[in-house]
Structure formats: C-alpha cells, structure tokens
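Interim report, section 4.2 (structural modelling).
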Amino acid sequence: LGIGTNREAGSDPGPAICTFLTDFGLASPYVAAVKGVLLSVCPEARLVDLSHDVPPQDIAYASEFLAACVPYYPLGCLHVVVVDPGVGTERAILYAEIGGQRLLAPDNGVLSRLADEHGPVTVVRTLTNPRHWRPTISATFHGRDIFAPVAGHLLNGLNPADLGPLATDWLRRPRPEVTPQDDGIRCVVAFVDHFGNLITSLPANMIPETAQLEIDGQQVECHPVRTYGEAAPGELVRLISSDGRLELAVVQGNAAERLGATVGSVVHLRHQTPD
Amino acid sequence: LGIGTNREAGSDPGPAICTFLTDFGLASPYVAAVKGVLLSVCPEARLVDLSHDVPPQDIAYASEFLAACVPYYPLGCLHVVVVDPGVGTERAILYAEIGGQRLLAPDNGVLSRLADEHGPVTVVRTLTNPRHWRPTISATFHGRDIFAPVAGHLLNGLNPADLGPLATDWLRRPRPEVTPQDDGIRCVVAFVDHFGNLITSLPANMIPETAQLEIDGQQVECHPVRTYGEAAPGELVRLISSDGRLELAVVQGNAAERLGATVGSVVHLRHQTPD
Amino acid sequence: LGIGTNREAGSDPGPAICTFLTDFGLASPYVAAVKGVLLSVCPEARLVDLSHDVPPQDIAYASEFLAACVPYYPLGCLHVVVVDPGVGTERAILYAEIGGQRLLAPDNGVLSRLADEHGPVTVVRTLTNPRHWRPTISATFHGRDIFAPVAGHLLNGLNPADLGPLATDWLRRPRPEVTPQDDGIRCVVAFVDHFGNLITSLPANMIPETAQLEIDGQQVECHPVRTYGEAAPGELVRLISSDGRLELAVVQGNAAERLGATVGSVVHLRHQTPD
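Predicted structure of the assembly:
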C-alpha cells in the first residue's frame, strides 16, 4: 500500500520521537504521570499521543489500532503501548522491533496485527533487568514505573540488549477470520471507527465484484462506492477502507448503530446469481 | 481585540510548528496516521492539536473554531484542517494565507470565518501537483495521503507555488446572521462551547444597553454581567464573550441545555420601552 | 514513594517544558487559543497536556490530579492550571514553587493537595504586574490573556519576582478526611479515575490487615489483592493504589458504578472480631 514511501532508509527520526497508546483516558492523571517520568529521564523526548481512548482492557482494539498507524512513523521511532489488564501479574513486558519500528508492550498479543501485516519481527526481548526501572514498582502501574523510564533510557541511546534476554516465545492473537465458502466468503468486523464505520477483515483484492451482504444473518442492501461523497447522506455503502479492506459505512451517519454491528459481527458476502 | 499584540512582525515561529483541526476523534487511528506521515517527511515538526473533536462533518463548527484560535499563533504557522465530508470527490484542496497564518483545508467554506474576521486573504492556491503527495491516494483518507505529506514539505521549506495554481474562486459561507429590526436586533447562536455557553453572532459594540431577550420565540430573563462569578450558580446571564460577542451562559451550568438552544437558534433583542 | 528518584537535583528540564491542566475540554477552541498565545511569546516552548477534561469548575478534582502527576516532572517545569470558576472576579492568580515544580494557578485552593503531599512550598507570589499580560483582558478568559503570556515569559527566563509581590496568604482546602474511630477507621473517596476505580484518602500504612468495609453505610465484600489480575473479572477488590492509598476496584469493571459511589462517599473500615 505504499506505506513508508515517504521515508528514506536510514533517515534520522529526529530528536527522540516517542508515541503512546493506552487505555488510561485523558481525564485521569495516569498519562500525565507517565510523561513526567519519561521527560525526567529524557528531557529532549518529543511525545506523540497515538491515543489514550482505547476501550478499557481492549487488546484486540489496540492491536488493530497499532497496525493502522505505526507503519507511517519514521523508522526507529519508539512506541509505548500500555493496554495491560494483566499488570502486576506474571505476564512479561516486551521490547520488539517490527518493520523497523521499536515498541514496548505487555506480552498479551497486542502486537499481533502489526506483526501480521507490517513485519518482519526482527527482535523481541523480555524486560527482566530492573536497573532502568523506577526503584519502587506499583503492582498496578507499570506504565509509570517500568515502561516510562525504560522508554526514556532507550531514547537516550540505551542498548536494547541491556533490557533483558531475547524472548523465545510471545503471545500471538489469531488473525480476524476470512473464510472462503461454497457460496461466497465470510469475514468479520475487525474495527469500528469514530464515525461508526465498520472495517472488516476482508482484504480489498478478495472482495467479489457483485455480492449480496448479510451481517449477523441479516441481509442488507449496500451500494459499492469509491468514497462517501458518491452517495446521498444516510445511504449505506460499501467501499475500500483507507487501509485496504472492505468497509461498510453510512454516509454522514453511523453504520455500527444503524446495523447493530460491532467487532466480531459476521459479514457474509454471497455470490449473486442472475435470475 | 488586541490579537497579535504579543507577536512581533517577522518573528521566527520557531522550528516548524504545525497545528491540526479535524473531526477524526482521538479513539480512531486516523490522527495518529496523519502525524506519522508528517513526521516521516519532516521529523523536526512540532505538532499542536487544535482539536480532533469537531462534530463529524460539521464545517460551520470548524469554521468558528479556526477564527477563535488561529489568529493567536505565531505568524507563519501552518494549520492543517481536515473536516472534509467531500473527501475523494471533485472538491479541491486549498493552500491559503490569511492574516499571516498558513492553512491547508478542503474547499468547503471552512476558512470563511477566519477570512471574514481576521484577513486579509493574501494567497489561495489549489493543490493539483501530486508530486508531494503519497504515491497511492486512498479515496477516503486525503488527510493521510495528501494533507500530511504536503504539510511536511511546506514545513521543510517547499515553495507554496509548487503545490498548484492560484485559485480563481473558492467557497465562502455566509456570515451568521445579524439583522437590525424596527424593534431591536436579531442574531443567531453561532457556537456552543464545552460549558454549554451560547456564543452569538452579535458583536459587542452592537449590544443594546437594555433589551428584552427572546430565544427561538421564547422570552428569557438574563442579567447582564461582566463575568460568570458576578452572579449566583445556576443563574442565566448575558455577557461579552472572550472573542467579543454577545454570550448567554448559566453560571456553573449549561445554557444550551437549559434553553434547548443550539447553533442557529434565533436570538432576538427587543428594545425595552419604559412603561 | 520514590518520586523524583530518576531526577537529579539541578538537572536541566530541557527546552522550556510547559504543562497544562484545565477544564476547557478539547472540543472548544480555548485550549488552542492559550497555546497560540504562549507559542507567540515563546516559540520554543514544549507543551504537554496534563488534561483538559477536569469536570467543569471541579477544583477538588484538579487538586488531586496535580498531586498524582506533577511530582514526576523534571524539576523546574512550569505547570499552568486553569480551573477557575472565579475568573474575572477579585480572586488572585498565583505563581508558586512547590517541591521544585513551578506553577501558575488561580488562588482557589487547587494547589492544596500538591502542597500537602509534595511540598515544601518555597515561593508564592500574586500576579499584580500587568506588564507581561495581553494588553486587553477578557473578563472571562484569563487563561488566554494572563496565564498564557506570563507562562511564555517565564519560559523565556523572566524573573518571577517581576510578576508581583510575595503572597502573605493563599487559599488551602482541607485534606480529605481520615478519622480513626473506636471500631476502626473512616476515610472518604478522594478521586474516581477513568476506570471507575475509587481512590480513597487512606494511606497504605494505615490500612488494617483485616477489616469489614462499609461504603455510605452499605456493607460490601471485597477481597484484598496486590493487583487487578489476581481476581476474576467482575470481582470487587481492594488494593493499594499507584499513589499509595486504599483503592477499591472491580476487575475489568467499574467500581464507582457498581457501588454508586463518588468523591466524598464515606468508607468505613471496621475491625473484624473473630467470632
């Protein structure tokens, strides 16, 4: 899809760009504390919020989110991902290099979609060396006490090998379903965006030219268009999403609400037979 | 109103400040992708979010928003505006210089209020040269594929003349209504802020000293005050807004909810006649 | 609690870090205007949002928020706090130095919790010298017209003594209640976070090992755990919060909703007597 075309191999990411993806919300002080710790370690860090509005503990959502934006960043950027229902338990924390991007994330599968779509995965390490952590670790806030100071030290040039050993195994989530069938193809809603658009798991090159759609068993009429403005406000349309998958949308409206669909809803495209 | 007083003509805006105004929301990955592309082109860019919470496709809201904040930025800052229901259609994308600020925006009228209030408009160009766009253009995400790389190149010093020809015409929205009448003056609610305060279209110097107010035909009692703290919590007051217009507010409350008013609601100020 | 351990005394906070805490929301243009004014005075400023989602006019919330994150910032950072129901009235604006951090805030008690927990308070000045304000001051928007330009000048190196005289007195809010009782200890919910977790006023070292809990007079069962992942989803637990206080939480759920509790709710821990 041309991702990375604007980047030159070996280009300098500039002074210490570090992004964040969390489910902390912006109304609580957690994001602000994380940034404070990071800036205390690396005052030159340049912070970019990917989002802090991941639904609480929604690993699948965060995994789709990373795949949709991380590949566009300059090579070598550091991305800190704290969607971490297992905080304080035995789950590991990973340092990974995927498609030239660097990430810190809990070992809960959140990196799966990025690795699936925008690999290769070249390095995965497990954070075991507490030397670069804060001296006291809250059992409920590793974002502040482990992720943030480690990120700061990485931005300062710390060798990732100092963080801990290479991981022999790490959690991968299964890809969202795409199943060819006798009478067509089955996929699922993989992501619902802010506008209520439904982004499915079906890659653009697998979309049949004509097909009858069912969502969770309900037949729906939706015209294929190239972009929203080609249909009237309120009309249900299908098109190719900005990351190259089948998308269902209501023009200037909310398809998720209209169809009662959500992540995991089954989308069935049946071949249309001429009568 | 003293805007710009703190800026010196010819002052350096510092290293590459670029602001964003979109309706993408922060829960979706679109803002994050736009920033990634921009930073890949110009790693030194310094990003400022004006807002990503413009109501979906609400051009009038975005237009008021720009007029209320863009003039306060250092001269020469670049402002990227992506509230764009016509994305992927024949609508043009504009580069404009208004009151010393630089903007990229769809040609849908979103720059009208800034041009009305804080001009002059000195340059308007139409983006036709794809040389600085991403090589593949999604029909639904020009923010990522056109606006972001073009912004990055402008921050890197690209001559705006390279973007495309001077525009001979561009869309202007009518100013929100202000109509003198035999028995007073009519205006409309032009903006509803986060607190539910109603900012009208009536400039401070046209506010009658005493007047009876009607909102959408309903008579309302509201005392003139200088600031919220001059009345009791819960009281409906009228005052001069921070951008110099008639404002209706409920002290520590929500005037929009109290009055059932919204953008476009008609505010009628009738001269009070002594009995 | 180890705050500040990653900071070295006298470390350079880097180029001009300035944070913001407001109740302006991000949908309105007020935050954007404040940043524009500040950048016009100090184009090199590096802006960090603590939050703009403080509930409107909620001074207690903002006070807890500051205490939970400001101490983690590099020494000498400037924090601009605009939660200011008294804007435009006789209330003063303060410049304060607390625990090595610098702050601008209205004199309404919002600095109390930071001063209580992370002092000492070494300097408090009242802003009286309008020389560094904008030339026209809106009665309703001191954030833009006073706080922002003063912050910019402080970042540029202005001596705080130029802002106004040392304050002889300033508003302090009482600490959230912690009351030992014959049969146990009483505290209150001091903060409700984004996840609905209830952070109480009771310091960790005062939590009895075993106790029966009542919230607003209702007895509740909740197991002590070290972190959320130690109990099943949906279970009510108590643990030590990330800032070292008694916290009540529902694993992957919302304790505030479950218990109908909010800031100020009384939490009573009764000694358990063996039967």
